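QA checklist item 7 of 12: single-chain prediction sanity check.
[x] sequence parsed
[x] length recorded as 438
[x] structure emitted
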Amino acid sequence: MAGYVPHSAEERQEMLKAIGISSVDELYSAVPQSVKLKNLHLPDGMAEMEVKKRMKQLAEKNTVFSSVFRGAGVYHHYIPSIVKAIIAKEEFLTAYTPYQPEISQGLLQGIFEFQTMICELTGMETANASVYDGACAAAEAVAMCCDAKRNKALVSETVHPMTLETIRTYCKGSGVELVTVKTKNGITDLAAMEETLSGEYGCVYIQQPNYFGMIEPTQEIGKMAKKTDTKYIMGIHPISCVLLKSPGECGADIAVGEGQPLGLPMAFGGALLGFMACSKQMTRKLPGRIVGLTADAAGKRAFVLTMQAREQHIRREKASSNICSNQAHNALAASVYLSAMGIKGLRSAAEQCVSKAHYAARQIGKVNGFSLVYPGEFFNEFLTYCPTDTGVLIKALKKRGILGGYPVEDKILWCVTECNTKKEIDLLADTIKEVCGK
């Protein structure tokens, strides 16, 4: 495919003539003058060399960290070069929404492959074509489960604060009562959850690993939910699934999460990729797009946007969601990443996350005052006390080219992935010791 070439002045004039007008201004004559911009005040054009120099000057203002030890929702994972090489192809970059399946088979197949991989990863039976981000996916899952009969949602306080606030916003708009379960030793208080759960609740939502990096007792929570016939939603870190019990194995009805670790860079915090998967019984309530595999008139394999007769399209007053789009390009990146890594690559990445995070916790823990807040099991994140001002420490690390952990009040949430080396971890611990020694 050729690169994008704008229309010439002659071509634009020909198009205007075809619709019976003489100028672009006439095309927008219905727009009031009061809302039109009269001048954009654009600077004069620059030569290519000047533009490159200017962009380089601007880019030099950015701080590029040599080591990253921050997660809290967005993670620094290795991305194979093939991911960017494939998703940068113009066929994918210029593809529009696949409303016409007969000419969108490639895009539809890409989405179908993504759905299949998400199902394999989560142990669920159906997945959609993605939503905006992980927090949105969690809120949409809660909306799937609550109705007039069961208008309460039970959410653990160990979930990501931004996810909790997103769920709260959705619940406020739909009249669902949100109840939270307190934390005990860094995980959900099981006794409090068992005492609270009843037939009034439409769902219970747990994050695994949770915001503090801790491993939740997800199977026990699943059993509690089943006793009251409450839908069980699990929010997951997708790479952790190859080591931990999958949502399907834990008895979850819906699995959601943030797909950014699957081949998407941290990129200043976005754009992100929310994935959703569910049991067969919940499929008709799954929001957004679902691509299905079928056969055409000639009996050949074909892909279509399936289940299009749901409330989002024809009975909107009964809809539990207004999402009808998806993050197709990011979903494609996740599919390429999963294909390139394979199960062995994913397992290696997950195992390195665990081993390096535990090594980092031991090294940081040797510095006086930096003990673990919660000494239980964790995946790739852990919370430590910080005896000094967190801002001072983060600035000191920045001078060494290190992006430190995420401050949580007077504590720090550290994150370690397969990208961090032993040398980087040792430098981190030495810098912490040096700063705190002063």
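[x] summary fact logged: The chain is about 40% helix and 15% strand.
[ ] second reviewer sign-off
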